[in-house]
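Annex B.
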Amino acid sequence: MTSKWVTAVFFGAAMTVAAGAAQAEDLVFTLKNGTGSVLNAFYTSPVGVNDWEDDVFGKKALGPGEEMEITIADGRSVCKYDMRFEFQGDALEDLEDTQNLCELGEYTITE
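Argininosuccinate lyase: predicted structure tokens.
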């Protein structure tokens, strides 16, 4: 009985370590809207992928001067991502950029 308990504790500890390692691969940074326009959509995809993935914002938007913590938890082990920003109205054209998100702590969109 003790052997089973020790095995269960070891397995639980191993799963906790594995879960922590998986979370360490999430890409987290602060996105700041330094423009005078509402940012309606934010798309990313790893460099070399031809299609944009789902809108990171979902149903949210980022107003002028606002900031939001962004987490990209796609399970990939890449750092360089293409990014696309779509704004409300015609005041600003949509923007695209490429960044190393592993090294990025903060990203500010400016006009």
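The chain has one domain: 27-109. Helices lie at 2-24. Further annotation is deferred to the next reporting cycle.
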